[in-house]
Design goal:
With about 400 residues, this protein is of the alpha+beta class. Among the domains are: about 30-100 and about 195-335, Immunoglobulin-like, CATH 2.60.40; about 110-150 and about 165-190. The chain is built from nine helices and ten strands. It has helices spanning about 1-25, 30-35, 40-45, 55-60, 110-145, 160-190, 230-235, 320-330, 355-360, and strands at about 200-205, 210-215, 220-225, 245-250, 255-260, 265-270, 275-280, 285-290, 295-300, 310-320. Helix 5 packs antiparallel against helix 6. The longest helix is centred in the N-terminal third of the chain and has 35 residues, at about 110-145. The relative contact order is 0.12.
Length: about 400
């Protein structure tokens, strides 16, 4: 009996092995249907917008999953999606600007705030930190050698050295002042933005970004991370490429209004020196302005859940003509452009727009048919200020429950 049970257990183990392998691979396809939901808000917000190529359309329908963005997928063959022609040619990213370069220090800054912050770090903070570190290290080495037990068997009893106490109080104050002056100036410039040329609202979701352009017809785009093979096909960095980029004109002051639809996220682009938290129920604000066209990448900087590492940001800076073409391709309108007349007949409805309805109808003719005369006011019209009759409904007591 025991031998039979052992044989049965061995057979069951070999028989269940293929099933276990299938079960391990099955969850990779499951998140696709769930993750396809993020594309729905964009379709509801602006039905006129269309993905600009097949890769974007495929990504909108099936956003990249963490399994597809893993290191094991870097050597896979590219997908069969073909890039279609569009009104806005895709700009190729610069490997040295707008993305991690692997070099020491910050990314090259392309905004006035970023340049000022980079100068503050390189010209003020680094020299001070280096000088303080070298001075403290030298002082420690001097004390260890000069006042060691063998070289100084009888320690000094000197206390309350006036000059020394003044020095170690005054020097830190001067260091703090040297740091505070440029730091406060940088904060003042960062939080006192100039007049904005356009506004973009970024909303963080688990786990993708949506962008709304309230100044350009209030259209919305949904931005998902591209799969590794699609990013490689476009020549963009993995884990940073998206299907729908934020597009802004070069030289324009862009005001970013940032919020969240679920948990706390953080919108930021290192090359702009811009980062602000996206808090549910609150509108936070930052701004940037760059005179250099190109693509600049960022990511969510706040731990927001399982796919926190898979919601990147891509901002494309283009010429004003390219920006106008892109807005038109998304179904938006440029500020000041003539709005197309709506075919909706409710625009002249006496209920929704009484003034337009009266203007369209013209003067009311009399019974005699004269178009220049108006009808006399009907008699027995109750003035609008008269009190309405008081209803007696509910005045009588209900017999139920009494």
């Amino acid at each position: 009996m025991k031998i039979s049970l052992k044989l049965f257990a061995v057979a069951a183990a070999f028989g269940m092995a293929p099933v276990a392998a299938v079960a391990q691979n099955a969850p990779a396809a499951a998140p696709t249907a769930t993750a396809a939901a993020p594309a729905a808000p964009g379709a509801q917000a602006a039905t006129a917008q269309q993905p600009i190529d097949a890769i974007s359309a495929n990504s909108q329908a099936q956003p990249a999953q963490p399994e597809e963005a893993s290191l094991t997928s870097r050597d896979e063959q590219p997908s069969k999606a073909e890039v279609l022609s569009s009104s806005l040619a895709r700009t190729q990213p610069d490997a040295e600007v707008g993305q991690p370069t692997g070099k020491l220090g910050f990314q090259p800054q392309v905004t006035p705030i970023g340049e000022e912050a980079s100068w503050f770090h390189n010209a003020i903070l680094l020299p001070l930190i280096t000088a303080i570190s070298v001075f403290v290290l030298a002082l420690l080495l001097y004390v260890m050698i000069r006042f060691r037990r063998s070289a100084n068997p009888t320690p000094s009893r000197t206390t309350h050295n006036t000059m020394l106490e003044i020095a170690w109080t005054l020097v830190p104050v001067l260091i703090l002042v040297a740091i505070a002056v440029p730091s406060i100036r940088l904060l003042a410039h960062q939080y006192s933005p100039p007049k904005a040329d356009l506004t973009v609202k970024a909303t963080g979701n688990q786990w993708y970004w949506t962008y709304t352009y309230p100044d350009h017809g209030d259209f919305e785009i949904v931005s998902n991370m591209l799969k590794d093979e699609d990013a490689k096909k476009r020549g963009e960095p993995r884990l940073l490429a998206v299907d729908e980029r934020v597009v802004v004109p070069v030289g324009a002051t862009v005001k970013m209004i940032v919020t969240s639809a679920d948990v706390i996220h953080s919108w930021g682009v290192p090359a702009f020196w811009a980062k602000v938290d996206a808090v549910p129920g609150r509108l936070n604000e930052t701004w940037f302005k760059t005179d250099r066209p190109g693509i600049y990448y960022g990511q969510c900087f706040e731990l927001c859940g399982a796919r926190h590492a898979y919601m990147p940001i891509a901002v494309e800076v283009v010429t004003p003509a390219q920006f106008a073409a892109w807005v038109a391709s998304k179904g938006g309108t440029m500020p000041g452009a003539a709005q197309p007349k709506s075919g909706d007949e409710t625009a002249t409805s006496p209920i929704t727009n009484p003034g337009a309805a009266a203007a369209a109808a013209g003067p009311t003719p009399t019974a005699g048919g004269s178009a220049t005369e108006t009808s006399p006011e009907p008699p027995a019209i109750t003035p609008g200020t008269s009190a309405p009759p008081v209803s007696s409904q509910g005045a009588t007591e209900s017999k139920r429950g009494n």
